[in-house]
Amino acid sequence: QVQLVESGGGLVQAGGSLRLSCAASGLTLSSFAMGWFRQAPGKEREFVATISWRGGITNYADTVKGRFTISRDNAKKTVYLQMNSLKPEDTATYYCATGRVPTTAPDLYDYWGQGTQVTVSS
Fold it and tell me: Could you say which DSSP state residue 107 is in?
């Protein structure tokens, strides 16, 4: 069974940094890509970043470019999201997911983590 376990969420002041981790197990040949998404209360789940397992090719939402960095450790099957210069509008529940292609559409991903809360205070 595919399982994604997230960690690293918490409360941080504006301008601060946080590093999220997503440990994956039970991945198959169909698990080509990983993605990070976030969802604030009452809002739609939105794309944050994606990365491919083989090539490490990355893609970012315009709202986080230059501030967030996605990376992966293939040996550990772990994906990270380094978040710098955090803003109050970054406050949301953050989810990691795996799927066949590194797209920005949540519906195209097959498995999801439980989510980890990130709160940025001003």
Answer: G
The rounded distance, in Å, linking the Cα atoms of 122 and 100 is 38
pLDDT per position as a tens digit, 32-68: 999 999 999 999 999 999 999 988 999 999 999 999 9
Which residues have a Cβ under 8 Å from the Cβ of 93 and sit 6 or more positions away?
A: 38, 39, 40, 115, 116, 117, 118
Hey, what are 72's tokens? 């992966």
Dist CA 84 CA 87 (whole Å): 9
pLDDT tens across 77-104, in order?
999 999 999 999 999 999 999 999 999 9
Q: Which is it for the CA torsion 52, 31, 24, 91, positive or negative?
A: positive
Mode of pairing for the β-strands spanning 92-99 and 68-73 = unpaired
Phi–psi pair at 98, nearest 5 degrees: -130, 145
Q: Round to whole Å and give the CA distance between 48 and 75.
A: 24
